[in-house]
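Exercise 3.2. Students should predict the tertiary structure of the chain below and write it as structure tokens, then compare their answer with the key that follows.

Predict this chain's 3D structure.
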Amino acid sequence: MCNFFFRLLHKTYLCQTNINMDRIITKRFIQEHLNDDVIQLGLQAKRYQDIDMAFVINQIAGLQKIKEKVPLFYQSDNILFPKQLSVEQSSSEITAKYKSMLFHGDRFADLSGGFGVDFYFISQNFRSGLYIERDEELCKLAAHNFEVLKIPQYEIHQTKSEDYLDNMPEVDLIYIDPHRRSETGKKTVLISDCEPDVALLAEKMLLKSPVVMIKLSPMLDIHQAIKHLPQTTEVHIVAVDNECKEVLLILNRNNTLESDRNQHILIKTSNLHKAKSEQIFDFTFDEEKQAEPAFTDEVGRYLYEPNAAIMKSGAFKLIATRFNLKKFHVNTHLYTGNNLIDDFPGRIMQVSAVYENNKTDIKKIKEKFSKANVTTRNYPISVDDFRKKTGIKDGGHDYLFALKTASGKNIIISCNKTN
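Answer key:
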């Protein structure tokens, strides 16, 4: 009898040892091929008979995508990655951290768990979290990854968010990032095209939480979104390194604003940088409506271009009055002044020359600039057509802005960056 148990124990030990060895070999293989082209690696799969290549390629592809996007996950040993679409659709670390700083409390629910990036960072400001996800694989990976990341209190529920809402407990915050791709894989931007349709779920969500945060497409029409979600009290427009990444709608159970509430909704724009401090510009639609900027044909010493988050917000008049700048034209969203405004939320250019839009000056531009960064705003031709017309290649340290001024005059301004 003793010999039997000894043999059984030895067999179990060998099995466990083999499993551990397989893990070590697999991990070593991933590290050795971390910078390889995964497509080429997949074509060579027959060379590696002892390796689960489907699994390995998925992990390598995930690590490659997450290295810059979510450094904390990349640096955490043993994180497992789902199919690539889930990694692509996840928030970046910098935008997830932004969302995590907006609220804190006892318990929150993420109704669109996914890869779990937002869930992890939001969980840092709550005592416990509810992760809701209909995909079985994502739920299994979340269970593994949350242990690796040492999230202290959480529950994982594999179900549709619509179904879970019916019996879910009350929480301090509901977060949801609805699926924004059609059946063919094409990206969608309308709220009604999202899954689930958050406009239909809004009232039910607000019965379970006093605050709901919804992540939507950066291509979204903000005014239309507010029309579909009248419980909105704040809109956050988040850009990273001057590229608009997210539009967040904050819904409040106690929204008691009057019928003109849209004008009083707080619009918060943020341009986040990895190396520099963020640029913040907050306003209401009413402030934008009431703003009366000065328009000009004259070009000052500096040219100002608002960042992508402000451009998305539509604060085209208010940005001029807040910073005492002149606007070139009602439809030309570029600004000028003689004073250097270091804290302007956008690019600041020092003007070096102003050219007329005629053959003589176009010839001068051709001769002077073989290479330049070109922007056209409210100008008769596109950037590509401007390059064809002038032969100027992209790049270099010079900047050319072709635009229309207050009187309808087309000009070209050459500049250099100051920041």
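Discussion points: The domain at 87-285 is CATH 3.40.50.150 (Rossmann fold). Confidence is low (pLDDT under 50) at residues 1-19.
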